[in-house]
Amino acid sequence: MTLLSITDLDVFYGKAQALHGVSLDVTAGEIVAIIGPNGAGKSTLLDSILGLTKRQGSITFDGQDITRMAAAKIVRLGIGYAPERGHLFPFMGVRENLLVGAYRKRDEIDANLAKVFGLFPRLEERQKQESATQSGGERQMLSLGRALMSSPKLLIIDEPTMGLAPRVCQEIAAVIRDLNQQTGLTVVVSEQNVNFAMSLAGQVYLLETGRIREKGTPEDLRQKLDIAETYFGA
Fold it and tell me: Is 50 helix (H, G, I), strand (E, B) or coil?
């Protein structure tokens, strides 16, 4: 079943066009990666799903047309968003930041806190620590945890490995993989770290200068010589 469908999406910042006729489909229960260089439009695409851009085209989620829907209503339909660099409240503690994400699922706070702390034990150990004093990896964990506090059907993650050490990237990848495999959570992740994205995703979209250049499985893209040379160095 298709959970998210985007058709002929154009996005504008003033008169400048950031996305050109982008189309993609996400099947329920899969991980989809959007890869591409900095400035390709990956974050713009994710923001557009959440209703945060001026856009044309069609976006449907779980059978509903959300193209012109307000962001708050889109989130209530069941989309969790962990944006690039987290956008956390720096002078609030870990627990307080998590509770911000639970505003639409207040009756599930205890269960979701237990889930998040099970995935990220360090967050449980440091519940009162202000996010401004956390490491980059801990802030990324907190961002993911906050998105999960809304019990989403779809988890959107923007550049989760930016600035993180390889060991922390592996931890983040393991959590995303476990969430997908154990709970069936659908995930859309954008990444410049192509190997990270390829290790997770069943379907990959390559975005360049606001256009989808290629799509397919990781194996499909690895076999295309020009893509392999550009993104894998081989």
Answer: coil
Helix (H) or strand (E) holding 11: strand 2-13
Element (H, E) at 186: strand 186-191
- pLDDT for residue 86 is more than 70: no
The helix, strand and coil proportions of the chain, stated in percent and rounded to the nearest 5, come to 40, 30, 30
C-alpha to C-alpha distance for 127 and 125, rounded to whole angstroms: 6
Average pLDDT, the chain: 92
Tell me what pLDDT residue 213 has: 94
pLDDT of residue 183: 92
- Mean pLDDT throughout 38-62? 95
155: number of Cβ within 10 Å: 23
In which region does residue 150 sit, left (phi positive, over 0), alpha (psi from -120 to 50) or beta (all else)? alpha
What are the distances in angstroms from CA 64 to CA 3, 94, 189, 230? Answer: 10, 34, 22, 38
CB neighbour list of residue 184: distance below 8 Å, 6 or more residues apart = 28, 29
Q: Distances from the Cα of 11 to the Cαs of 44, 45, 180, 217, in angstroms? A: 8, 8, 30, 26
Instruction: Give dist(CA 138, CA 144) in Å, integer.
Output: 10
- The closest of 198, 175, 111, 202 to 149, measured between CA atoms, is 111
Domains of the chain: 1-78+156-163+186-234 (3.40.50.300)
pTM above 0.85, yes or no: yes
Structure tokens at 61: 């989620």
Residues 6+ apart with CB under 8 A from 113: 95, 98, 149
User: How many other CB atoms sit within 10 Å of the CB of residue 2?
Assistant: 12
